[in-house]
Amino acid sequence: MNLKLHRLVLFLAALCSTPSLLQGVSATTTASPNCTTPTHFFDQLVDHENSSNRATFQQQYQVVAAHFKPGGPILYYQQAETSLFACMEWTILPEWAAELGALVITLEHRFFGLSYPSKDPDPVRQFQSLTLENVMLDAVNFIGHIKNTTEGTKESKVLVMGGSYGGFLTTVLKMNHPDIFYGALPFAAPLRSIGANNQNPQRYNWFKYLNQVYWDLSATAAGKMKHAFDVLGQRVQAANDTKSLARDFGLCSIPNTTAELQEVMGVINTVQYQIPQLGFVSPIGNPTGANVEKLVNQTLLLDDPVKVINASLNMWFPPSLYPCVPWGNDESVNPTLQLDSFNYLLCKYFPLSVNEIPNGTIYVPTSVQTESDPNTCMGLFNVTPPTQEFVESKYHITRDELVEAKRILFTYNEFDPTTAVGVDPLPLSQDRNASRGPTDRGACKEH
Ligand SMILES: *[C@@H]1O[C@H](CO)[C@@H](O)[C@H](O)[C@H]1NC(C)=O
Ligand SMILES: *[C@@H]1O[C@H](CO)[C@@H](O)[C@H](O)[C@H]1NC(C)=O
Ligand SMILES: *[C@@H]1O[C@H](CO)[C@@H](O)[C@H](O)[C@H]1NC(C)=O
Ligand SMILES: *[C@@H]1O[C@H](CO)[C@@H](O)[C@H](O)[C@H]1NC(C)=O
Ligand SMILES: *[C@@H]1O[C@H](CO)[C@@H](O)[C@H](O)[C@H]1NC(C)=O
Ligand SMILES: *[C@@H]1O[C@H](CO)[C@@H](O)[C@H](O)[C@H]1NC(C)=O
Ligand SMILES: *[C@@H]1O[C@H](CO)[C@@H](O)[C@H](O)[C@H]1NC(C)=O
Ligand SMILES: *[C@@H]1O[C@H](CO)[C@@H](O)[C@H](O)[C@H]1NC(C)=O
Ligand SMILES: CC(=O)N[C@H]1CO[C@H](CO)[C@@H](O)[C@@H]1O
User: Fold this and answer.
1) Per-position DSSP letters for 386-399, written without gaps between them
2) Which atom of ligand 3 is nearest to the CA of 244?
3) Residue 445 backbone class (left: φ over 0; alpha: ψ -120 to 50; beta: rest)
């Protein structure tokens, strides 16, 4: 049994969710987790489903009421897997609120940041209440709390929004509580390729999509990348020059084991998708201004396969900020992702499978299992991850149900591989209330 977590892919999406909505804000704001509009806490039930358990925890939320006109809509932003609270005043939502006379509200996700129902040292006991049902009912109860405490909101229609994993939550909230959520705006929502089973037919789609992005931008550059990955793959396979591997790519330490070599490959693959995924203008999501078109331009000027890989690494980890390339520590690769809680929910109800790479792309093929690998989930959390079919039918996100659902606007970004594990295009309809998408007006795009 393999209990080691292979951190191959952090589909990062936390980064896509919050910062994607962020407007020009100085990079220094990332240093302070505190919002200029203060946040508050309220008592939330630890377990909404067990009526004999009345235990509560303090859940953090924020209300931006500056533009609210009584009866106007409520824009509910669903926070996701980050340890930092996303302050609504940094997002575009106040601008939308000014147009709509809306109230902007947001709730921290349970088990992230300061909203912690349990600190039990045993992860099985600690995360017992981290179920999708509880996460949804937190939002439902929070909306009730706001409607009870904010004058003029009783009749307000609620629109839910969020990105990436938050986009998945946005979709399931709308589909499972349509009486509470009038409309939904999921951006970059992964809804397919769920299920850690190796049979999942969509599990290669993430990297197939990236492969297509690079070939479409420039066949010459993609060809150079393919050659560079071939050479890198052979070196990793041979595992006989790890010292020079570390030197060539400026790694912070030398990988010594097969698992460590795989982690290095994982970081390189992750960088290779984060550049197109997060290449929008945002000082928080993309502080170093990574841009896939820039990368392709640089690659066109290079022939040395080491330098081709290095071009991506140096774009994502600029030597001016990173003396060396961090690997083997997710927190340094993605500092706002709260890994322990996220790994649990990946096993429990959101086992997205996007790490496998088929033959024939520019990348090194891999079938390495990752965070939601069934053995890992069983060993760490005593949890068997559900399949795509199970999640689709239990949480009402089958294609037929999404086509029937009203007022969901699915948005994706043309370079973002999440597009490949999102919804297929919905049919055109004359019904003005019909759900639509995907469109590429994703909030992950520069606006
Ligand atoms: C419900 O909560 C009560 C009180 O905390 C607890 O004793 C009981 O085991 C819980 N039931 C389930 C099914 O978790
Ligand atoms: C809101 O008020 C209603 C009526 O008083 C009450 O039943 C409900 O529990 C309240 N909800 C919240 C979340 O406070
Ligand atoms: C490593 O192994 C490969 C394949 O076996 C061989 O071609 C290469 O010369 C070796 N490199 C070093 C530095 O030993
Ligand atoms: C790759 O970039 C790193 C960091 O700038 C540098 O230390 C290393 O020498 C570069 N490798 C090559 C082969 O240019
Ligand atoms: C691998 O071994 C080298 C030399 O013994 C050591 O300096 C380095 O820290 C090791 N790498 C890791 C990740 O432990
Ligand atoms: C890439 O190069 C092309 C052709 O020279 C140029 O038009 C484009 O602006 C460049 N893009 C970026 C992002 O540097
Ligand atoms: C990739 O090719 C190898 C060697 O030909 C083969 O064993 C493997 O099954 C192929 N993988 C896929 C996903 O087709
Ligand atoms: C959209 O749905 C709402 C709620 O059911 C309804 O009141 C409204 O008339 C519908 N709008 C259109 C244009 O069909
Ligand atoms: C409510 C909140 O997020 N408070 C934080 C403000 O910033 C300090 C310093 O970073 C944190 O320790 C608090 O938790």
Assistant:
1) PBHHHHHHHTT-SH
2) 13
3) beta
250 CB under 6 A from ligand 4?
yes
Paired tokens of 147: 């409607």
Each residue's pLDDT, cut to its tens digit, for the chain (447 residues) gives 222 333 333 333 333 333 333 322 222 233 346 899 999 999 999 999 999 999 999 999 999 999 999 999 999 999 999 888 999 998 899 999 999 999 999 999 999 999 999 999 999 999 999 999 999 999 999 999 999 999 999 999 999 999 999 999 999 999 999 999 999 999 999 999 998 777 788 999 999 999 999 999 999 999 999 999 999 999 999 999 999 999 999 999 999 999 899 989 989 998 999 999 988 777 667 878 899 999 999 999 999 999 999 999 999 999 999 999 998 765 555 667 888 899 999 999 999 988 889 999 999 998 866 667 888 899 999 999 999 999 999 999 999 999 999 999 999 988 999 999 999 999 999 999 999 998 765 444 443
Ligand 2 atom at minimal distance to the Cα of residue 148 = 1
Q: What are the distances in angstroms from CA 276 to CA 159, 171, 295, 446?
A: 29, 24, 9, 13
Say if ligand 7 is within 6 A of residue 208 CB.
no
**Ligand 3, CB within 6 Å, residue ranges:** 238, 240-241
Q: Which atom of ligand 6 is least distant from the CA of 296?
A: 1
- Going from the N-terminus, what domains does the chain have, and what CATH number goes with each? 39-187 (3.40.50.1820), 201-381 (1.20.120.980)
Q: Are 153 and 146 in contact (CB under 8 A)?
A: yes
